[in-house]
Specification:
The protein is α+β, with helices and mostly antiparallel strands. Helices cover 34% and strands 28% of the residues. The chain has helices spanning 3-9, 18-28, 35-44; strands at 49-53, 56-61, 64-69, 75-80. A hairpin with a 2-residue loop joins strand 1 (49-53) and strand 2. It starts with a helix and ends with a strand.
């Protein structure tokens, strides 16, 4: 099955911890409250490249990479790729 399709089918399960929100806001220089919504919109973008490696999903769009745990669907981190 297409890797991206599996993640998109479970998009409603994606969530984040309180500490994760602060980490992602800092890493991506975001000034918003709905970090989960922001990440979900990036993941749902047609330009998002998604692959699974080990226990994580990696979603990259442009220079932003989001890491999601494949079992719990928790957003672990997000970074600007240089």
């Amino acid at each position: 099955m297409n890797q991206n399709k599996i993640l998109i089918e479970n998009i409603d399960r994606i969530h984040i911890t309180k500490m994760g929100v602060e980490r992602i806001k800092r890493n991506l220089n975001l000034d918003m409250e709905d970090v989960v919504g922001y990440c979900k919109n990036l993941i749902l973008s047609k330009d998002c490249c998604t692959f699974r490696q080990g226990k994580n999903w990696y979603c990259q769009i442009g220079n932003t990479r989001i890491t999601v745990n494949s079992n719990s669907y928790t957003i672990i981190t997000a970074h600007i790729v240089k």
